[in-house]
Structure formats: structure tokens, C-alpha cells
Design goal:
Layout lengths: L7 H28 L34 H5 L10 H16 L3 H9 L3 H13 L16 H12 L5 H18 L4 H9 L4 H12 L6
Helix pairs in contact: 1-7, 3-6, 4-5, 4-6, 5-7, 6-7, 7-8, 7-9
């Protein structure tokens, strides 16, 4: 990577232009997707908005991966406080499950209208790749309960929330900024100005009232 500081503004300008085009493309595809009505295997037509996910917040209902055991399908379950130790443990287990999945990327592409290459790009960045996070060695991101929930909804294709799509946009932009020369911390801060996934995810949990804090 060219680290000449004089070339950095030009590189960032190119990246920003590309991201604006990608943002327009994703929004266009999602608008087209919203107009479509999905069809079940039995040939019955249904509206996704009338089929919400389980009220207890379970991740494991549905065929997320053809190789899952009954224990793996449980994934992140129950009405958990996202900031609790229990939620952290569930998220860690689900991240491990995602790394073994082979059907999540095409399912998310089908459910959102976003190209598989872009979904794979996000999966690799969040779950697979190791990053320079300021330590001595490269390491993966810590598991996030919010992101685990978003990924599961995107796989299932039911009750997809706006911040789930926001997560995909955030990670695409952040990774591009890292590749342009920013540190991960800088890229995350800059991306959050446009796609503040963390804020929207927390607001969503607050609205549904699943996790009241004492």
C-alpha cells in the first residue's frame, strides 16, 4: 500500500466517490426488494411484515445452516440484556457458528437484494478476517450481540430491521477506509458519522422494550 501522505487525500476522494455510488446502488436494490412479495415453497404468497421473528428473541429457529446440530440451532436465545456477560457468551458462540456456515451469504443476498460479493465482503470483515486493533498481533473483532442478532435476521429474511441493512453499509465503508490507509479505529469513527449502527441497534432494543435496565 502506498503510504505517501501526499497521495492519501486523492485516495480518500476516490474511495468516497465509490462509496457514494455503492450507497445509491444498495438503496435502489432495497427499494426494489421492498416492492416484491415473497412466495413460500407451497406456492402461497405472504408479506414478511406479517411474519415477525419469535417474540422471545431466539436466533435458532429456521434453517440457518444445513450442517447445524440442534445445539447450534439454539444460537443466541432468550430475552438477554445485550450488555450482559451471558449475551457476550451467546454472541461468541454464534460468531463461531457463522464461521462454519456455507449458506448464509447467498441467503442474505436473496433476502436483501444486495450482491453476494458485497455480503461476502462484509462477512469476511466482521467474522473471518484478523485486524490490526493496536495490539502486538492481528486479531478478530470481539463478538457483538447486536451484530449477531442482525446477521441472523438477515439470514432468515423475516423482520429485517433498518439497522440490519445499516450494518452492511457500515462495514463496507469501514473496510474500504481501512484499505485506503486509515487505522481501524479512525475508519470506524469516520464511518459512524454516516452509518451509526451501534446507536441505531441500541435504539431498536430500547423501543421494543426487551431489555429494561434496573
Amino acid at each position: 500500500m502506498n503510504k505517501n501522505p501526499r497521495t492519501r487525500p486523492a485516495m480518500l476522494k476516490v474511495v468516497c466517490l465509490w462509496l457514494k455510488f455503492l450507497d445509491w446502488k444498495l438503496d435502489y436494490m432495497l427499494q426494489c426488494k421492498k416492492k416484491a412479495i415473497r412466495t413460500t415453497d407451497e406456492g402461497k404468497r405472504w408479506d414478511e411484515s406479517k411474519h415477525p421473528r419469535k417474540s422471545n428473541g431466539q436466533f435458532g429457529h429456521g434453517d440457518a445452516n444445513e450442517g447445524e446440530s440442534s445445539g447450534q440451532k439454539e444460537a443466541v436465545a432468550g430475552a438477554l440484556d445485550p450488555e450482559s456477560e451471558r449475551a457476550d457468551k451467546h454472541a461468541a458462540r454464534y460468531y463461531g457458528l457463522v464461521r462454519s456456515m456455507t449458506t448464509d451469504v447467498p441467503k442474505i443476498a436473496k433476502n436483501t437484494g444486495i450482491p453476494e460479493d458485497d455480503v461476502r465482503y462484509v462477512k469476511d470483515y466482521i467474522f473471518m478476517d484478523k485486524h490490526d486493533l493496536g495490539g502486538e498481533n492481528l486479531e478478530r473483532f470481539d463478538p457483538s450481540f447486536y451484530m449477531a442478532e442482525s446477521w441472523q435476521r438477515l439470514i432468515e429474511g423475516t423482520n429485517i430491521q433498518p439497522h440490519d441493512i445499516l450494518m452492511l453499509k457500515h462495514e463496507i465503508m469501514e473496510r474500504e477506509l481501512v484499505l485506503s490507509g486509515m487505522t481501524q479505529k479512525e475508519a470506524h469513527k469516520e464511518t459512524s458519522k454516516k452509518y451509526d449502527y451501534a446507536k441505531e441497534a441500541k435504539l431498536y432494543h430500547g423501543r421494543i422494550g426487551k431489555h429494561s435496565k434496573k
